[in-house]
Amino acid sequence: MGDEPVNVKEYQEMAKQALPKMYYDYFAGGSEDQHTLRENNDAFQRIIIQPRILVDVSKINMSTTILGYKTSAPIMIAPTAMHKLAHPGGEILTAKAAAACDVIMGLSFMSTCTIEEVASSCNAVRFFQLYVYKRREISALMVKRAEINGFKAILLTADTPKLGRREADIKNKMIAPQLKNFEGLVSTEVDDSEGSNLEAFASRSLDPSFSWKDIAWLKSITKLPILIKGVLTREDAIKAVEIGVEGIIVSNHGARQLDYVPATIAVLEEVVGAVQGRIPVLFDGGIRRGTDVFKALALGAHAVMIGRPIVYGLAAKGEYGVRRVIEMLKDELELTMALAGCPTLNDITRNHVRTQMDNHHCRL
Ligand SMILES: Cc1cc2nc3c(=O)[nH]c(=O)nc-3n(C[C@H](O)[C@H](O)[C@H](O)COP(=O)(O)O)c2cc1C
Ligand SMILES: CCCCCCC(=O)C(=O)O
Questions:
Q1: Which residues lie below 8 Å from residue 27, measured CB to CB, with a gap of 6+?
Q2: What does the buried/exposed string (b/e) look like for 215-244 if buried means 16 or more CB atoms within 10 Å of the residue's CB?
Q3: What residues make up the domain containing 214?
Q4: What global pTM score does this model have?
């Protein structure tokens, strides 16, 4: 392989070479048997694109808005924790790459750069991802700081009442660094000589009692729009609409929480059908190609979020690497739209893809 990756997947190997094993395993790993981790990727490969020919594709327009904020493409950076483990520049470099590519960034609650450092580093549009701690006042303070610092939405992660069992982290005795955001509030340094220190910290801090009724609390402390991240079923999608949040994210946390849940792309259509256009449905999990973005859009996602490839780009080549990952996905999406006969995002329809379910119905 030459030094300059030609696709997003090649950044993973570069990141593996660049990182200590403990950190690479943390970023790359899924939970338990990693069944869902494989499925998140494999399920995309079972979806076929049905292109249209003889369409004027001399101009392709990928630009859109997410919650009213302009973006050059329906591609966002997913919130992923602790970017300084990938590169000393951390989330500041990720944010600068987002700004350079004109895409929106999700900042993790567990970021290694502070909310203020990221906010003052560039003019990227940023959403803030929230975990709810047992000490709820800490979560409330983070929401306030995000709001004051110009973050535009809260991504409430709802699939993590406890941390999934990540066996590589247990074997490596994964160490969570002290996070500057929480200085003077809580220490992330927990000594669990038996296994993953991150898991030990999570079980000490996350509030597993947080439930639907507590969305009212979140609404009472912020005016920012709230998106619920981690929806995988029709039932939960309907509840989210009924409770009045501004959006949902179909996500299985990059297959790091409950193993043997479905690939996100396999449930997207069910969730979109339940929501019936009332709120935007974002999507993440396993996107590695522009064709994957196209497939998710065809199945009804308003936009997609990218997790691991961003971290791999950061680990391999810093801000430049993150930029290249986003640019490659955008270039591939643009080419896919042209070759599928879709000059605008609105031209991408359900009929542009064929799923296994469609094949099954055909045979009936
Ligand atoms: C290393 C890593 C850290 C993550 N940290 C967070 C986090 O702090 N908060 C969160 O809501 N999701 C987190 N996620 C999940 C991502 O937001 C996203 O759902 C997932 O990475 C998408 O799948 P992909 O990596 O296949 O693109 C993390 C994922 C990874 C791989
Ligand atoms: C206190 C919660 C720890 C979460 C760690 C970050 C994360 O979401 C991950 O998937 O890893």
A1: 15, 19, 80, 85, 86, 308, 311, 312, 315
A2: beebeeebebbbbbbbbbeeebbbbbbeee
A3: 10-363
A4: 0.97
How does pLDDT run across 113-156, given as a tens digit for each residue? Answer: 999 999 999 999 999 999 999 999 999 999 999 999 999 999 99
According to DSSP, residue 116 is labeled: H
* ipTM of the complex model: 0.99
Question: 2 in a domain, yes or no?
Answer: no
Helices marked H in the chain: 10-18, 21-28, 35-45, 90-101, 115-121, 136-148, 167-172, 197-205, 215-221, 234-243, 264-275, 290-298, 308-340, 356-363
Ligand 1 atom closest to the Cα of residue 129 is: 11
CATH code: domain of residue 101: 3.20.20.70
CA of 253 to the centre of ligand 2 (A): 9
For residue 361, the CA-to-ligand 2 centroid distance in Å is 39
Assigned domain for 314 exists: yes
Q: Provide the token pair at 335.
A: 């080419």
* 104 found inside a domain: yes
Number of domains in the chain: 1
